[in-house]
């Protein structure tokens, strides 16, 4: 048998009694002792009688140089490769992750058996005390982190209109910042509507967590936090994400450094507990209208009308972000209200396009565009189909949301005079014609009168 084969067999038959003879020891001592025993058995198995030093990085480097200086090059090279493999195995074992849900790594378990008063040759028990194993490997989740996760989950469903006021930010200032975010996405020409909405949602969530933690954030950090959230959300949503160079020079114009962005990014990730899933009303509304318009092929809805429908959804979705009360509504209800409002807008749009009233003949309707009658009929049928799918109790909630959205749109100039960018991005919806169509979309609420006794 070759001497090198004898060496490998000797290493495989490493006795656990030699390693664990000194009693309980920590992980570092275990590795050191294991390397010493393996080197002793290697030297005894081979004919080379020289004493080998302790296995460390200096020993590896010395053995690498000896490959070219020693006359016995093959043996020296084998020793050097073997020592490199030992170090790589040690690093790999230390870096191997373990979780309680998955099957733990066998090597890590055997390294921890000394603390559990077992030997290496003993079979691994089926029911291992993972809490004790985690304490050995320093993988225990702190109790404070568990409480923080539970609190953050509860805050996800909590609607709080006065989030920003705790931090000294008024609703008008928040709306101006959201309007500025619209400008950032328009200037960069990157990022989707969903990226914008996720950044706005996580902005409120971040400030909400800080509020209920009793931490007040300075108003000076408002822009830095918003830019960092745009960068984070773009990494998750966009196929071509916004770069750090664009954030620093095109969005903030050199106001911040990359170190500030990365430091704030780490702090935001820890505060949000790395939970970025957002139940977006925008996705629900877009998918619902897409399925509804493609469900009835006989209606023959053109691709141009489908693009207009999607543009209305984009406009309403970005508009309601500025109003905290509407933005914190239930995503499912908000998506249904957006779908209903979009269908009503298209219906009244084609009514206004196809008909005109003649004041001289008792306000009789005159057909202006006969080609648009098919489109008008199609959206009237879609609106009826949508209303049939909605329960009566839910209709009242959707109508109330629609009224709040239209009223906020109608009073936007008076309530938020400093807003400019949403007008630039959606000029079509701020004309007199579009304003009249949206006001016609106001649903009628039936008021129940109490019967007099």
From TrEMBL:
Residues 34-51, 58-72 have a biased composition (Polar residues). InterPro entries: Cyclin, Cyclin-like_sf, Cyclin_N. SUPFAM superfamilies: Cyclin-like. It comes from the Eukaryota. The lineage of its organism: Eukaryota, Sar, Alveolata, Ciliophora, Intramacronucleata. It comes from Stylonychia lemnae. The gene is Contig12046.g12881. Coiled coil: none annotated. Residues 152-275 form the Cyclin N-terminal domain. This is Cyclin N-terminal domain-containing protein. Residues 34-78 are annotated as: Disordered.
């Amino acid at each position: 048998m070759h001497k090198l084969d004898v060496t490998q067999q000797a290493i495989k038959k490493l006795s656990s009694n030699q390693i664990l003879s000194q009693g309980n020891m920590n992980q570092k001592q275990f590795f050191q002792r294991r390397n010493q025993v393996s080197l002793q058995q290697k030297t005894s198995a081979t004919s080379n009688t020289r004493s080998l030093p302790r296995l460390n990085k200096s020993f590896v480097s010395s053995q690498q140089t000896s490959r070219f200086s020693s006359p016995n090059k093959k043996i020296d090279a084998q020793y050097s490769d073997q020592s490199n493999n030992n170090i790589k195995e040690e690093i790999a074992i230390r870096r191997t992750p373990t979780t309680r849900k998955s099957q733990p790594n066998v090597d890590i378990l055997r390294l921890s058996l000394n603390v559990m008063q077992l030997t290496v040759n003993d079979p691994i028990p089926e029911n291992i005390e993972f809490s004790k194993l985690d304490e050995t490997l320093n993988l225990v989740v702190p109790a404070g982190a568990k409480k923080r996760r539970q609190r953050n989950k509860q805050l996800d469903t909590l609607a709080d209109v006065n989030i920003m006021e705790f931090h000294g930010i008024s609703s008008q200032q928040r709306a101006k910042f959201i309007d500025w975010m619209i400008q950032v996405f328009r200037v960069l020409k990157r990022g989707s509507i969903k990226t914008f909405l996720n950044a706005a949602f996580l902005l409120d969530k971040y400030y909400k967590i800080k509020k209920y933690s009793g931490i007040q954030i300075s108003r000076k950090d408002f822009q830095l936090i918003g830019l960092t959230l745009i960068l984070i959300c773009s990494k998750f949503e966009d196929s071509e994400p916004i770069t750090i160079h664009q954030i620093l020079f095109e969005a903030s114009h050199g106001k911040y450094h990359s170190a500030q962005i990365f430091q704030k990014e780490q702090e935001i990730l820890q505060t949000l507990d790395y939970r970025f899933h957002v139940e977006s009303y925008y996705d629900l509304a877009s998918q619902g209208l897409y399925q509804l318009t493609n469900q009835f092929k006989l209606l023959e809805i053109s691709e141009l009308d489908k693009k207009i429908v999607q543009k209305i959804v984009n406009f309403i979705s970005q508009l309601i972000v500025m109003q905290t009360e509407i933005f914190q509504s239930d995503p499912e209800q908000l998506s249904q209200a957006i779908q209903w409002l979009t269908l009503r807008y298209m219906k009244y749009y084609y009514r206004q396009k196809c008909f005109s009233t003649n004041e001289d003949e008792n306000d009789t309707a005159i057909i202006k565009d006969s080609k648009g009658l098919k489109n008008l009929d199609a959206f009237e049928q879609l609106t009826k189909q949508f209303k049939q799918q909605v329960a009566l109790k839910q209709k009242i909630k959707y109508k109330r949301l629609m009224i709040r959205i239209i009223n906020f749109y109608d009073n936007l100039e008076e309530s938020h005079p400093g807003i400019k960018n949403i007008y630039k991005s959606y000029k079509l919806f701020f004309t007199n014609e579009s304003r009249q169509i949206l006001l016609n979309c106001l649903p009628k609420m039936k008021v129940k009168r109490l019967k007099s006794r």
